[in-house]
């Protein structure tokens, strides 16, 4: 594992990128306190699968703490290091960096066997020593996973397309106030608390299997022995007092947020910037910088309205995005739905999250499409919607009429480009058009699948 941390993009390059962001932020906001920026958040800006991993990885090589604040093992990014692939579902991706402490915050839910499997896949016996799990985080039980499957089957055609990892039912237990927390694993009360929740489940979900308490206890003993269950609120505030840099890594994406997303086709935990405060115990004023990750087009998994959706089956641009972009789920193999970039969606996402800037990913996938489109406005009942307005009603969202601008495409391979000026003029125009129509500043552009296929924009 020693070579790993060295292979990560080169510390100096990553540090330069990181500081550039912070300087940009300071120029904009004039940090009157003179305090250097410490907390930076990376969020998915669309419906997920934007490719956050690469940006998080670039930034993680220069921080002290990488923290997850929401979701469970339903996140997913793969990092490729020295030809070896690492899939991250629950663990923060700072696990690949020897000097990083990795925090699983109180807003997260974790299934113990899944977490230990993921730890083992890292092939690093010391990995557990770099992990701190909040005493206030919730434990996903096997019964939560069973209930997830039952509920999904019951919904049949109207299924939400959940990953059946028990995440929704675990957050439901949290809200019902009979959930199991990591504190319970530490203070020895887990057996009694599992009995209580099992009594509840037996009544409301008859047929759900018994929980294997001794298995939970044996995992708990390993975590306790490693000192991994911690008061992460105290830990994070001590780190802030020391001047440490913290990268908060969001799971899922803005349009999957239970409040701001396309409800009910959403996930169960806050995926937007506010989740950093509620999921880590970091106060709003301490969040210095929010970065969005935007795919150069739009994809969506599962059901629900999708205004800029393209047909995947004809030989047109939808088919191109799906095949060239390899837009299918890594675990399920399910095809993702694909469409044009949606600026009204991004303006809404930016309004909710306040992105300082964005990382535009997978621009190379557009290579070879003769004419590109960007959605610039929605009309509903012949009336143009305000600049920041995304319909809450899915019926309305399904009915919106989309206005597009058309731009010339390019055919040159851009995967080797290391700067904006190397892009063909049409690709430059496309990036600038996104900034213009979505009111966003692009700071990074991803031009290929490799970890180095990303460059910083001029004037950052
Ligand atoms: C419970 O888990 C333990 C491992 O911790 C295993 O040895 C045992 O067979 C399991 N019991 C049941 C009933 O599955």
UniProtKB/TrEMBL annotation:
Signal peptide: none annotated. It comes from the Eukaryota. Keywords: Cytoplasm, GTP-binding, Ligase, Magnesium, Membrane, Metal-binding, Nucleotide-binding, Purine biosynthesis, Transmembrane, Transmembrane helix. GO terms for biological process: 'de novo' AMP biosynthetic process; IMP metabolic process. Binds 1 Mg(2+) ion per subunit. Its cofactor is Mg(2+). Homodimer. It catalyses: IMP + L-aspartate + GTP = N(6)-(1,2-dicarboxyethyl)-AMP + GDP + phosphate + 2 H(+). The keyword Repeat does not apply. GTP binds at residues 48-54, 76-78, 336, 362-364, 446-448. Mg(2+) binds at residues 49, 76. The active site is at residues 49, 77, 174. Plays an important role in the de novo pathway of purine nucleotide biosynthesis. Plays an important role in the de novo pathway and in the salvage pathway of purine nucleotide biosynthesis. Catalyzes the first commited step in the biosynthesis of AMP from IMP. Its EC number is 6.3.4.4. It comes from Chrysophaeum taylorii. It is an enzyme of class 6 (ligase). Its main location: cytoplasm. Belongs to the adenylosuccinate synthetase family. HAMAP family: Adenylosucc_synth (MF_00011). Pathway: Purine metabolism; AMP biosynthesis via de novo pathway; AMP from IMP: step 1/2. Substrate binds at residues 330-336. This is Adenylosuccinate synthetase. GO terms for molecular function: adenylosuccinate synthase activity; GTP binding; magnesium ion binding.
């Amino acid at each position: 594992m020693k070579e790993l941390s060295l292979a990560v993009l080169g510390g100096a390059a990553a540090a330069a990128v990181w500081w550039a962001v912070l300087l940009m932020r300071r120029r904009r906001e004039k940090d009157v306190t003179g305090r250097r920026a410490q907390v930076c958040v990376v969020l998915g800006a669309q419906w997920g699968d934007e490719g956050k991993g690469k940006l998080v990885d670039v930034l993680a090589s220069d921080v002290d703490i990488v923290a997850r604040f929401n979701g469970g093992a339903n996140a997913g990014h793969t990092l490729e290091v020295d030809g070896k692939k690492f899939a991250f579902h629950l663990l923060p991706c700072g696990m690949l960096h020897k000097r990083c402490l990795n925090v699983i915050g109180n807003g997260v839910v974790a299934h113990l066997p899944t977490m230990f499997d993921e730890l083992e896949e890292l092939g690093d016996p010391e990995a557990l020593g770099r992990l701190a799990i909040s005493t206030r985080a919730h434990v996903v039980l096997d019964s939560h996973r069973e209930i997830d499957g039952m509920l999904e089957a019951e919904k049949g055609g109207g299924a939400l397309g959940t990953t059946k990892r028990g995440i929704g039912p675990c957050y439901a237990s949290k809200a019902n106030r009979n959930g199991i927390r990591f504190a319970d694993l530490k203070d020895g009360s887990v057996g009694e608390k599992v009995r209580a929740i099992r009594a509840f489940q037996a009544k409301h979900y008859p047929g759900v299997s018994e929980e294997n308490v001794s298995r939970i206890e044996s995992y708990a003993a390993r975590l306790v022995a490693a000192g991994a269950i911690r008061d992460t609120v105290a830990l994070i505030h001590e780190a802030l007092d020391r001047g440490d840099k913290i990268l908060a890594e969001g799971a899922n994406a803005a349009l999957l947020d239970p409040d701001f997303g396309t409800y009910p086709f959403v996930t169960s935990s806050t995926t937007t910037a506010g989740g950093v405060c509620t999921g880590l115990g970091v106060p709003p004023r301490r969040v210095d910088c929010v970065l969005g990750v935007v795919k150069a087009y739009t994809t969506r998994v599962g059901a629900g309205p999708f205004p800029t959706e393209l047909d995947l089956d004809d030989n047109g641009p939808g088919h191109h995005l799906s095949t060239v972009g390899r837009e299918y789920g890594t675990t399920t193999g399910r095809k993702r739905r694909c469409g044009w970039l949606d600026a009204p969606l991004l303006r809404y996402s930016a309004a909710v999250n306040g992105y300082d800037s964005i990382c535009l990913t997978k621009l190379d996938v557009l290579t070879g499409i003769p004419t590109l489109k960007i959605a610039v406005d929605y009309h509903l009942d012949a009336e143009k919607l305000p600049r920041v307005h995304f319909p809450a009603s899915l019926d309305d969202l399904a009915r919106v009429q989309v206005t597009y601008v058309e731009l010339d495409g390019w055919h040159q391979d851009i995967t080797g480009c290391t700067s904006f000026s190397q892009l063909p003029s049409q690709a430059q125009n496309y990036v600038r058009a996104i900034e213009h129509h979505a009111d966003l500043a692009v700071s990074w552009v991803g031009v290929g699948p490799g970890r180095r296929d990303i460059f910083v924009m001029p004037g950052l």
